[in-house]
Structure formats: C-alpha cells, structure tokens
Target: ABC transporter ATP-binding protein
Amino acid sequence: MKVTSTPGPRAADGAAADGGSAALLAARGLTVDFARHGRTTRVVDGVSFDVGAGEFVGIIGETGSGKSVSLRAALRMLPRNGTLAAGTSEFGGADLQALPARELRRLKGARIGFIPQQPWSALNPVVRLDRQFRQVGRAHGRSRAWTDRAALEMLERVEIADPRRVLAGHSGQLSGGMAQRVVIAMSLLLAPELVVADEPTTALDVTVQREILDLLSRICHEDGKSVLVVTHDLGVVSHYCDRVYVMRAGRVLEDGPVGEVFAAPRHEYTRSLVEAAGAGDLEDTDGSEGEAS
Ligand SMILES: Nc1ncnc2c1ncn2[C@@H]1O[C@H](COP(=O)(O)OP(=O)(O)OP(=O)(O)O)[C@@H](O)[C@H]1O
Model:
C-alpha cells in the first residue's frame, strides 16, 4: 500500500487541519466520563479527529489511552456507564449524537462497518452463519436472495475457501483468522463508505494479522472506502494509514500525515513510541511510496 505524506499544516488541536467540513466522519471535543465504583472518572478529554473520503486514518496510543472509548463515543456506542460529557460527531453531515436511534442503527450497518477486536464478539455461536448474514440484510431491507448472493461474493473477496460450506456452518468451526474474515465480510456486506476497526487483529497470530490487514486494506482501497483503525501497533499505522492521531491519557497529543509525524515527532511521547518500535516498523514512513508486500 502506498503511504502518503501529504504536505500541509499539522493541526494543534487534534482535528485535521485539512479535514474541515469535507470530512466523512468528524469528531470534535469528545469528552467522556465513566461512573465506576460510585466515582466519576474522565477518560477522554476534548478529543477531535476527522476521516476524509477514501482516507486511511489511525489512532495510536498505549493501552488505556482512550482510543477505543473515543471511537465508541464518536459512533454513539459507549457502554452504559459511559457518558458523553461534551463534544459532537458528524457522519456525512448527519449529527450522530442527535439522530433518532432507529436512523442511527440504519446508518451504522449500511454506511459505517464496524470490525471489533474479537471476531467472536460479533458472531453468534449457535446461529448458522448464512442466517447471521440474512439478519444483517433483513435489518436493512434486503431480500434473502440479495443477501445470500452478496454474502457469497463478500466471502470470496475475503478469500474464504469454500464459502458455501462456511455459510452453512457455525462460527465455532472457524479459526480466529477465518472468523475475522467472516466478520469483515459481514461488516462490508452493505458496502459501507467508512470501515471502523478497533484493534482488528490483536486476537490473532502475528502471521495471520498481516494477512487480514493486507486483505482489509486492499478491499477498502479497491472500493474507495475510508478506514479508521485504532491500534497500539505503530507498524500497523505506518504501513496502512495516511494520517495518524497519537493519543495519551485521554487526549490527542499530535496528529498529521504518518510520514511527517513519525519522521519528526513533535511530542516526546511520540518519539518514544517511534524509538520503541524500532526502524523496522518505519520502513514505509519516509514519505516515499512504499509498497506493502
Ligand atoms: N466500561 C468502562 N467502565 C469504566 N471504565 C472504562 C470502561 N471502558 C473503558 N474504561 C476506561 O477508559 C480508559 C480508556 O480505555 P480505552 O479502552 O479507550 O483504552 P484504549 O486506548 O483503547 O486501550 P486498549 O488498547 O487497551 O483498548 C481506560 O482507563 C479504561 O479503563
């Protein structure tokens, strides 16, 4: 994959300087409180980010820095004990925080695909996979025939061998990598414009991780989709993303084109991430046109 290093200003407030109102997903000032053991803790504080059309954006930071919570806040997917204390998020100009729940559900399945950390969390072990695809199709007004055809096509695109047999089976028969391919196929079923992936490969073996990411990136590039990926792996961001937001302790420390941020980090923390990752992970971030293997 090409890693671009678009020249341009680097924003200081966590929002992309070049994102502006044209962004497909725009989050501004997200601030999240969690109630825990009778106390309220602020875990995300004023986080802003943009994802433009066709852009691959990464959010990176150590465990607990607030990456997942920011992403979930933007998509109105916070757990019960989490509250959005401040901030806004828009998708294609629609206010995600104000949309009626039904419209939000419709938009999320059809225009925003979500890939979770654990494929198993998105699959029901006791329901045949073809039925699970049909449930997704039905929820969005698609016929059974349409869904069956689309599911087969998507499983082929994610390189599942013998997709008919897989569809007639259950998720428990799949390896982790196969299960994540099925989840990717399901999340892409309705051709969403944006794919949001929360540490999509941490549950998988290292070799499988790369295969899955290559596949996801290829399909999303071919179809011109936007991707927002949350990861603690600098190699993933440097290899697959155009722009990056670096998070620590619930805030965005810096953001910008991947090549620029990692080649000349402004923040000490980003510098330490780069140093810890070592040169091997940064082979593609020099602003030149590195190709993924
Ligand atoms: N449901 C919850 N209730 C209380 N606190 C939570 C909840 N979910 C997350 N947190 C807290 O919010 C903070 C940010 O968590 P978050 O999951 O966003 O981190 P992260 O950067 O995505 O890390 P990881 O890579 O481990 O997922 C952490 O301190 C976490 O303990």
About this structure: The pocket of adenosine-5'-triphosphate is lined by residues 34, 36, 43, 61, 63-69, 79, 81-82, 232 (CB under 6 Å). The beta strands are 25-36, 39-51, 56-60, 82-91, 94-95, 112-115, 194-198, 226-231, 243-248, 251-257. The CA atoms of residues 118 and 203 lie 6 Å apart.
